[in-house]
Specification:
Blueprint (H helix, E strand, L loop, with lengths): L8 E6 L14 H15 L4 E6 L7 H6 L4 H25 L4 E5 L8 E2 L2 H9 L3 E5 L9 H11 L4 E6 L4 E2 L11 E2 L1 E3 H6 L7 H9 L4 E5 L5 H6 L6 E4 L2
Helix pairs in contact: 1-3, 5-7
């Protein structure tokens, strides 16, 4: 008999850039397909799953603002990019036999449901994978903050941030060879040392609501399942 997963309900945060694979822009079908397979493998063990996807592979509001565009307009474009990514992930999951719902923080009734917390929880309880799109629905808030917020709202046991690095480092490991990787760090240390795990608002939300956060390397197949089995993959951020 397979071991019971360590977590009952998780919120997985995927960056938009993660969907690009080796491309310069957009979505690599092989990458999103591989992610969908990993998510469904974990779902098959009974774990309930919510997902937040960024939009940086298409548009990033802050980047558009830096180039001279109105920040609010840029952020709204970024929100729409996350909806596109969520729809792509829904398609990838359903093609592999999964059940998924896209719930958007901004109303786009023809392509997604509105985010309503009670309805989202009901979908999750029925075994559907819920893809939370459009961030928080507000400009100036990142999809990291949206992930922390949704994790709290659905009562997740763990917030996972899937990245291209194997955890949190004391400095950028690409620039400093002596950068130290942490297996465990507290919310307060992340904020005080500006470790760039997530933005400060997201970390503060996790801290204030006691949601543990794990940062791990999504480019290594099987890592998500290993975490569900209780392996210490990547870096754990909690109260200490």
């Amino acid at each position: 008999m397979a071991a019971k997963p360590k977590y009952q309900r998780i919120l997985l945060k995927l960056s938009g850039e993660a969907l690009m694979g080796g491309l310069d822009y957009g979505i690599d079908p092989q990458v999103i397909g591989g992610l969908a397979e990993e998510i469904l493998e974990v779902r098959a063990t009974g774990v309930q799953i919510g997902v937040v996807i960024g939009g940086g592979n298409i548009f990033r509001g802050a980047g558009l603002a830096a180039a001279g565009m109105d920040r609010v307009t840029g952020d709204h474009m970024g929100m729409l990019a996350t909806v596109m990514n969520a729809l792509a992930m829904q398609d990838a999951l359903e093609k592999r036999g999964g059940f998924a719902r896209v719930m958007s923080a901004i109303s786009i009734h023809d392509v997604s449901e509105d985010f309503i917390r009670r309805r989202a929880v009901r979908h999750i309880e029925k075994g559907r994978i819920v893809l939370f799109a459009a961030g928080t629905g507000n400009p100036f808030f990142t999809t990291d903050s949206a992930a922390a917020l949704r994790a709290i709202e659905i009562g997740a046991d763990l917030l996972l941030k899937a990245t291209k690095v194997d955890g949190v480092y004391s400095a950028d490991p690409k620039k400093k060879k002596d950068a130290k990787r942490f297996e465990h760090v507290t919310y307060e240390e992340v904020i005080a040392r500006n470790l760039q795990v997530m933005d400060t608002a997201a970390i503060a939300l996790c801290r204030d609501n006691r949601i543990p956060l794990r940062i791990y390397d999504m480019t290594r197949p099987g890592n998500l399942m290993r975490i569900m089995k209780g392996e210490a993959i990547g870096t754990l951020v909690d109260a200490g």
